[in-house]
Amino acid sequence: MIEDIRICFIGDSFVQGIGDPEYRGWVGRVLEATGQDITAFNLGIRRNTSDDVLRRCRSEVLPRTLPGADNRLVISFGSNDTIQEDGAVRVDPARCLENLASILDECRHYSISPLVVGPPPVIDAGAEHLHRTEKLAGEMADLCRTQQIPFISTTLELAHDPVWTEEVVSGDGAHPGSNGYRRLADLVLAEQWREWITQPRS
């Protein structure tokens, strides 16, 4: 195992951990549970779409990599893309997939190992948003599958999780508290994460 593992987590407010009174979110809990010496960078920004993430990805991730290190990138977006504003979604699903494909191409170019975490549900946005997000998540999973990139599904799992939904409803309608982020961390810490984090760099 390469000793110097450097992981950037890039995405939206769920990556940032908004709503967690412990300020750890799912990223902090995943790192804690992984139990390895990892240099990690949380690059989550509230309200970011896939357009925003693609725009800043190279300039924020590359300075945090090192030649010879085991450089990795966890990507998570989509919940904001499917939000409707002024009668249209913020980012068309086809463009969201193009954005993800572009980031994965950049990872290959710079020898960065990626993993994708699917978009969590925004409970307050209603059933139509959930349907759009579920569909997008499925298309993201298909894209990752064709490229042999690990994808972790979260949309329906959290939409049907009473701990997540109760904390979201009692909060701002979108973000959970500590226990909800623990649930999301548990999803991420499934078999795919364990395989990915222990996989030697090719």
Fold and architecture overview:
- Helix content is 48%, strand content 16%.
- It is of the alpha/beta class.
- It has a single domain (5-198), classed as 3-Layer(aba) Sandwich (Rossmann fold), CATH 3.40.50.
- The strands form two sheets. A five-stranded parallel sheet has the order 2-1-3-6-7, with helices on both faces.
- Helix 5 links the parallel strand 6 and strand 7.
- The mean pLDDT is 96.
* Known CATH architecture: 3-Layer(aba) Sandwich
Instruction: Please indicate the percent range of residues in DSSP E strands (runs of 2 or more).
Output: 15-25%
Specify Rg, calculated over alpha carbons. 16 Å
Helix and strand content put the structural class at alpha/beta
Compute the average pLDDT.
96
**What order do the helices and strands follow?**
EHHEHEEEHEHEHHHH
CATH topology: Rossmann fold
Report the strand count: 7
Give the class-level CATH name: Alpha Beta
How many domains? 1
| Mass-distribution shape | globular
Report the biggest beta sheet as strand number plus sense, adding barrel if it closes. 5 strands, parallel
- Described by its quaternary structure, the protein is single chain
| Distance separating the two termini | 12 Å
Helix count from the secondary structure assignment? 9
> What's the arrangement of strands in the largest beta sheet?
2-1-3-6-7
| Helical percentage | 40-55%
- Low-pLDDT windows of residues: none
Fourth-tier CATH superfamily name: SGNH hydrolase
